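Handout, section B. The chain below has 89 residues.
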Amino acid sequence: MDATQVFTAGQQGLYILLLVSAPILISVLLIGLIVSIFQAATQIHEATLSFVPKIIGAVAVLAIAGPWMLTTLVEYIQRTLQAIPGAVG
Protein backbone atom coordinates (compact mmCIF):
# COMPACT_ATOMS: atom_id res chain seq x y z
CA MET A 1 0.00 0.00 0.00
CA ASP A 2 1.58 3.24 -1.11
CA ALA A 3 1.01 6.82 -0.01
CA THR A 4 -1.48 7.53 -2.79
CA GLN A 5 -3.80 4.75 -1.64
CA VAL A 6 -3.57 5.95 1.96
CA PHE A 7 -4.42 9.52 0.99
CA THR A 8 -7.28 8.33 -1.24
CA ALA A 9 -8.73 6.22 1.57
CA GLY A 10 -8.45 9.14 3.99
CA GLN A 11 -10.05 11.50 1.48
CA GLN A 12 -12.95 9.12 0.89
CA GLY A 13 -13.43 8.71 4.64
CA LEU A 14 -13.56 12.46 5.21
CA TYR A 15 -15.96 12.90 2.29
CA ILE A 16 -18.33 10.25 3.68
CA LEU A 17 -18.07 11.87 7.12
CA LEU A 18 -19.08 15.27 5.71
CA LEU A 19 -21.80 13.76 3.54
CA VAL A 20 -23.41 11.83 6.38
CA SER A 21 -23.14 14.57 9.01
CA ALA A 22 -24.30 17.42 6.75
CA PRO A 23 -28.09 16.95 7.09
CA ILE A 24 -28.02 17.07 10.89
CA LEU A 25 -25.53 19.91 11.05
CA ILE A 26 -27.41 22.03 8.53
CA SER A 27 -30.77 21.49 10.22
CA VAL A 28 -29.41 22.30 13.69
CA LEU A 29 -27.66 25.37 12.28
CA LEU A 30 -30.84 26.66 10.63
CA ILE A 31 -32.95 25.98 13.72
CA GLY A 32 -30.38 27.78 15.88
CA LEU A 33 -30.43 30.76 13.53
CA ILE A 34 -34.23 30.93 13.59
CA VAL A 35 -34.34 30.65 17.38
CA SER A 36 -31.65 33.33 17.71
CA ILE A 37 -33.60 35.69 15.47
CA PHE A 38 -36.73 34.99 17.53
CA GLN A 39 -34.85 35.64 20.77
CA ALA A 40 -33.41 38.89 19.43
CA ALA A 41 -36.81 40.06 18.21
CA THR A 42 -38.62 39.27 21.45
CA GLN A 43 -35.68 40.06 23.78
CA ILE A 44 -36.07 36.70 25.49
CA HIS A 45 -32.53 35.67 26.37
CA GLU A 46 -33.07 32.24 27.85
CA ALA A 47 -30.10 29.95 27.14
CA THR A 48 -32.11 26.75 27.36
CA LEU A 49 -34.71 27.90 24.84
CA SER A 50 -32.55 26.90 21.87
CA PHE A 51 -31.82 23.34 23.02
CA VAL A 52 -35.28 21.82 22.70
CA PRO A 53 -35.93 22.90 19.08
CA LYS A 54 -32.44 21.75 18.08
CA ILE A 55 -32.95 18.34 19.66
CA ILE A 56 -36.37 17.95 18.05
CA GLY A 57 -34.91 18.98 14.68
CA ALA A 58 -31.99 16.58 14.98
CA VAL A 59 -34.30 13.69 15.89
CA ALA A 60 -36.60 14.55 12.97
CA VAL A 61 -33.67 14.63 10.54
CA LEU A 62 -32.41 11.31 11.91
CA ALA A 63 -35.87 9.82 11.45
CA ILE A 64 -36.06 11.03 7.86
CA ALA A 65 -32.45 10.72 6.68
CA GLY A 66 -31.31 7.98 9.08
CA PRO A 67 -31.82 5.04 6.70
CA TRP A 68 -29.90 6.84 3.94
CA MET A 69 -27.10 7.72 6.37
CA LEU A 70 -26.85 4.14 7.60
CA THR A 71 -26.88 2.73 4.06
CA THR A 72 -24.14 5.13 3.00
CA LEU A 73 -21.95 4.20 5.97
CA VAL A 74 -22.51 0.46 5.50
CA GLU A 75 -21.62 0.67 1.80
CA TYR A 76 -18.46 2.62 2.60
CA ILE A 77 -17.41 0.11 5.26
CA GLN A 78 -18.09 -2.80 2.88
CA ARG A 79 -15.98 -1.17 0.15
CA THR A 80 -13.20 -0.48 2.62
CA LEU A 81 -13.18 -4.03 4.00
CA GLN A 82 -13.28 -5.53 0.52
CA ALA A 83 -10.31 -3.38 -0.52
CA ILE A 84 -8.07 -4.69 2.28
CA PRO A 85 -6.84 -7.82 0.44
CA GLY A 86 -5.87 -5.74 -2.58
CA ALA A 87 -4.01 -3.25 -0.45
CA VAL A 88 -2.07 -5.86 1.49
CA GLY A 89 -1.13 -8.18 -1.32
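Note. The radius of gyration is 19 Å. Compare this with the example in section A.
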